[in-house]
Automatic annotation (TrEMBL):
The modification 4-aspartylphosphate is found at residue 60. Its EC number is 2.7.13.3. SUPFAM superfamilies: ATPase domain of HSP90 chaperone/DNA topoisomerase II/histidine kinase, CheY-like, Homodimeric domain of signal transducing histidine kinase, PYP-like sensor domain (PAS domain). Keywords: Kinase, Phosphoprotein, Transferase. SMART domains: HATPase_c (SM00387), HisKA (SM00388), PAC (SM00086), PAS (SM00091), REC (SM00448). It comes from Halorientalis regularis. This is histidine kinase.
Length: 720
């Protein structure tokens, strides 16, 4: 048997089974390519064709029911080109004419000898050989047409001068927004569907194709969609004997690609202009891309990044942190971003603290393709964190309680004094956070605090305020505190609350109460001194004056001097008792004028040099008493010829004389009450000087003057 490509499958149709069987045998003997099968009527033949393929039908004409011509017509409806030979014993010119009109392939009349089958086999072979090439071409055209119609690209073919459209598929209408019928009527109508700004560009491409050039262009089309479509056209001229005979090409819709390109361009611009670094690392640990920020931050150019592995830029410890983050991203589906803090090594040999937010590059077939990272310089943040740690350390070493309130007065933070687990009110810090401050303060103190806070808000120059208040403990005990308040940083000018330091002043209040009791006892003592000593002295002085009128005696002069010493002693005691009180009547005092006025009050003969023009903040009466006592002290120890000088020192003033001075081993004792080296001194003068200085928060020290005399220096003085 010949191969399948050359074999001929024949269907023999004859109502006489014996004749049909003879015909089958003789055909297969006459041509080894032929394989024949027989059926007895037209219906059987049509059923056979539905199930199997044949290359030729040989049919008798005169058959019961449906004759050979009717079978031919039925076959032609489905198989218009299938070879059909009418092989009949009742032939006539009329039948032959009808058969030819019906599309029969050949007509042959039956004979009596076996030669007729050899002739029939030849006719079958000729008919099939003519049918097969045409059928192959037809099948190829069908396949091409089916392929073209199922293509998303518009396929087309023109004559070389664009005057005739030879072929175009239906995809043209979707891409160009123009009907195929219009294009057939006007082969150049496609130019009308091109964006006006691109039309001349496309027209020039058309002309180049006509001259034999290939074209590969992109442009906008589809007027009905506002020229929103992008088309890619590739076309080739077909040249025959040096002349462009035809032009073939395709048009592809690339709108989505253009949109992706625009979107990619936008993202690229964002990446390049954003204030953070961006890098892309593939699965081979190669840097594919870094933006400008990364090159500026590191000092390395893009080529260095692409040619280097991460170990050039990060330590082994930091690389391990990156790898841990990548493993987390790969193993936990719900995690899409991981953050890593690292130190970036720069080209200058320095390190920059960074925070990198990593995410995975899109995978292909589930395979890891690398990471993308967004890098932020956190130098400022790290510095703030270190500064915050320093402040936190300081705050936690403060022996006082520290707290913060929000704008509504709720506690947001409370830190107990150093080494304490509980707050001074007996609560754990966690118990108070979120509570309103009224949990540990009464209404009056809260109102006072609100007034103080309002003053801070209204006065930009004022940084803090203080007031005394009481906190209420868990047990209901009230603890006196000094509350130092400052505002929390504002946000857009909005008040955000306060921070404060609570200092337990229980001990101070106890001392104040004790001091108050001591002052009260001292006042009673002063009253006794003033009344019970002065009155008898006044009586003694009056009696002495009467005695001096009645008699003259040197003893009376000595009594008078004793009376004066007693009066001075009483005055000094009273002054000493009162000078310990804090100076409250403070104002601007001209130091030169005060120094000169005190000279006249003590001894007009004393020499006082004033070498200052400063104005000090002081209680003027007490300052003058201080100067007078120093003048008297100089006269008592150096005589009326002494020279006293008042001048400036950094942060204060001095008073010195040119007398004998104070021995160094006695300088610490000169301010003690009752200490005096003068025969008639009370020992209270310099004690009063020290008390007045302390009442002003001044410091006083004793030294030697340039002339060898005593020098008293006062520092910590405020100037007007």
């Amino acid at each position: 048997m010949a191969d399948t490509a050359s074999s001929i499958r024949v269907l023999q149709v004859d109502d006489d089974p014996e004749l049909a069987a003879v015909a089958v045998d003789f055909l297969e003997q006459a041509d080894e390519r032929i394989t024949a099968e027989a059926v007895e009527d037209a219906d059987s033949a049509l059923s056979y064709l539905d199930d199997r393929a044949v290359d030729c039908i040989v049919s008798d004409y005169d058959m019961p029911g449906t004759d050979g011509l009717e079978l031919l017509e039925a076959v032609r409806e489905t198989y218009p080109d299938l070879p059909f030979i009418l092989f009949t014993g009742n032939g006539s010119e009329e039948i032959a004419s009808e058969a030819i009109s019906a599309g029969v392939s050949d007509y042959l009349q039956k004979g009596t000898g076996t030669e007729q089958y050899e002739l029939l086999a030849d006719r079958i072979g000729n008919a099939v050989e003519q049918y097969r090439p045409a059928r192959a071409v037809e099948r190829a055209e069908d396949r091409l047409r089916e392929l073209a119609e199922n293509s998303n690209d518009a396929l087309w073919m023109y004559s070389g001068d664009w005057s005739e459209l030879e072929f175009v598929n239906s995809a043209y209408e979707d891409i160009w927004g123009q009907s195929v019928e219009r294009l057939r009527e006007n082969p150049r109508a496609f130019l009308d569907a091109v964006h006006p700004e691109d039309r001349e560009f496309v027209r020039e491409a058309v002309e180049r194709l006509s001259t034999g050039e290939s074209v590969d262009i992109e442009f906008r089309v589809n007027e009905s969609e506002g020229y929103g479509r992008w088309a890619w056209v590739q076309a080739e001229p077909i040249v025959d004997d040096g002349t462009v005979a035809r032009i073939v090409g395709f048009t592809r819709d690339i709108t989505e690609r253009k949109q992706r390109e625009r979107e990619l361009g936008r993202y690229r611009r964002i990446v390049e202009t954003m204030g953070d670094g961006v890098y892309e690392l593939d699965e081979t640990v190669t840097y594919l891309h870094v933006n400008d920020y990364m090159t500026e931050l590191s000092g390395y150019d893009r080529q260095t990044w692409r040619e280097s592995d991460p170990s050039k830029f990060f330590s082994a410890e930091d690389i391990e942190a990156f790898e841990d983050a990548i493993r987390t991203l790969l193993s936990e589906d719900e995690v899409t971003v991981e953050s890593v803090e690292a130190d970036l090594r720069t080209a200058a040999g320095e390190t920059v603290p960074i925070e990198a937010n990593l995410t995975l590059r899109p995978t292909e077939d589930g395979e890891f393709r690398g990471t993308v990272g967004v890098v932020r310089d956190i130098s400022d943040r790290k510095e703030r964190e270190r500064e915050l740690e320093r402040y936190e350390t300081i705050v936690r070493t403060i022996p006082d309680e520290v707290y913060a309130l929000d704008a509504e007065g709720h506690l947001v933070t409370i830190i107990p004094p150093t080494d304490a687990e509980e707050t001074t009110t007996g609560y754990e810090p966690a118990e108070l956070v979120g509570e309103h401050v009224s949990a540990i303060m009464d209404e009056d103190d809260i109102a006072t605090g609100q007034r103080k806070i309002q003053k801070l808000i209204e006065d930009d120059e004022r940084r803090k305020v203080s007031f005394e208040m009481e906190t209420i403990t868990r047990d209901g005990e009230r603890i006196p505190n000094e509350n130092h308040i400052a505002l929390r940083p504002m946000e857009d000018g909005e008040f955000r609350g306060t921070v404060g330091v609570l200092r337990d002043i229980t001990e101070r209040k106890r001392r104040e109460r004790e001091l108050q009791r001591q002052n009260e006892r001292l006042e009673r003592f002063v009253g006794v001194v003033s009344h019970d000593l002065r009155n008898p002295l006044n009586v003694a002085q009056n009696r002495l004056e009467l005695a001096e009128r009645e008699c003259d005696s040197d003893h009376l002069e000595q009594v008078a001097q004793s009376h004066e010493r007693m009066a001075t002693l009483i005055d000094d005691l009273l002054t000493l008792a009162r000078t310990g009180e804090r100076a409250t009547d403070v104002g601007a005092v001209d130091l030169r004028a005060a120094a000169e006025a005190c000279r006249d009050a003590v001894d007009e003969t004393a020499s006082v040099r004033v070498e200052t023009n400063r104005t000090v903040l002081a209680d003027e009466g007490r300052l003058k008493r201080l100067l007078e006592n120093l003048y008297r002290n100089a006269i008592e120890h150096a005589g009326p010829d002494v020279t006293v000088t008042v001048g400036d020192v950094p942060g204060g003033f001095f008073v010195e004389d040119d007398g004998p001075g104070i021995p160094e081993d006695e300088r610490d004792a000169v301010f003690e009450s009752g200490f005096s080296t003068a025969e008639d001194g009370t020992g209270f003068g310099l004690s009063i000087v020290e008390e007045i200085a302390e009442a002003h928060d001044w410091s006083v020290s004793v030294a030697e003057s340039d002339a060898g005399g005593a020098r008293f220096e006062f520092t910590g003085v405020a100037f007007a």
